[in-house]
Amino acid sequence: MNLFSSAEVAKNYIGAGKGKASMPIPQMILLGIMAGAFIAFAGIGSTTAAATVSIPSIAKLISACIFPAGLAMCVLTGAELFTGNCLMAIPLAKREITVGGMLRNWIIVWLANLLGGILVAALVVYGHTLSLFDSGLAVSVMSTAASKCTLTFGEAFLRGIGCNFLVCIAVWIANAAKDVAGKVIGLFFPIMLFVVCGFEHCVANMYYIGAGLFAKTVPMYAEAAQAAGVNIDAINAAGFFGGNLLPATLGNIVGGSICVGLVYYFSYLHKADA
User: Fold this and answer.
1) Whether this model's pTM surpasses 0.85
2) What are phi and psi of 128, to 5 degrees?
């Protein structure tokens, strides 16, 4: 059978998690930057594809069908993505890694993801990709950033839980497949669901809000957004880090580590430990 069982996936992830915890810092940084860039490219691609669609639900669906490319690139190239690495709760529960080793990975990868996302945001803004559709793409980017910056702490936290529950299920299914086609098809639907549902992915938001902040500095983009009724004043550093990334990251940790990682640990590995 061209598929690992869930019990086998759980056992296999112990070794994967140990490798992540012991990975040299330079490698972790480089692979983290790549993951942040992959998710950012998926973000600009999905926004561009949906920017001129006037029916919001259809635009959301189109965007959701493009965005899984980001995780596909991460999974197939071995990039280090913070949200997927929340599954390191499994080897931690097995006492195969330490809390310090897990936090070392999470912190370094999170920061590297941020750098990758910010670099791509700068590339698309100052490369004037956002001038597409008479700056309609810039309006869409800034509207998304403003909406993310104005969520309440509780909203961003809860949406973060829903997001990484689905992202880690996508990673789980991809790890169950033994071939490229199976991995890509398996991860597609959970990622599509989280985008359609409007959940909050901290790494994706590093790009989305970062691009909004950069676009705000370009007069042509700022004027177009204001003319479209976008509150560009809401796009600021406080909204970026304190208003969105902090609660979304905490929600992502709960959704990935507890709702998926520990659930599967207790389902398939805890009995053996006992």
Assistant:
1) yes
2) 60, 30
* Amino acid occupying residue 135: S
Q: Domain range holding 205?
A: 6-273
Q: Convert 106-138 to b/e letters by CB count within 10 Å (16 or more is b).
A: bebbbbbbbebbbebbebbbeeeebbeeebbbb
**Whole-angstrom distance, CA of residue 28 vs CA of residue 105:** 8
Residue 1: inside a domain, yes or no? no
In a domain, 65, yes or no: yes
- As for how many domains the chain has, the answer is 1
| Rounded-to-integer distance, Cα 198 and Cα 206, Å | 16
The CA distances from residue 52 to 65, 222, 223, in Å, are 16, 18, 18
Cα 70 from Cα 86, distance rounded (Å):
17
Helix, strand, coil percent values for the chain (each to nearest 5) = 85, 0, 15
First to last CA, the chain: 30
CATH number at residue 203: 1.20.1080.10
Please check whether residue 103 lies inside any domain of the structure: yes
Predicted confidence (pLDDT) at residue 17 exceeds the cutoff of 90: yes
Q: Note whether residue 129 is domain-resident.
A: yes
**Chain segment 104-139, per-residue pLDDT in tens:** 999 999 999 999 999 999 999 999 999 999 999 999
Collapsed DSSP state (helix, strand, coil) of residue 3:
strand
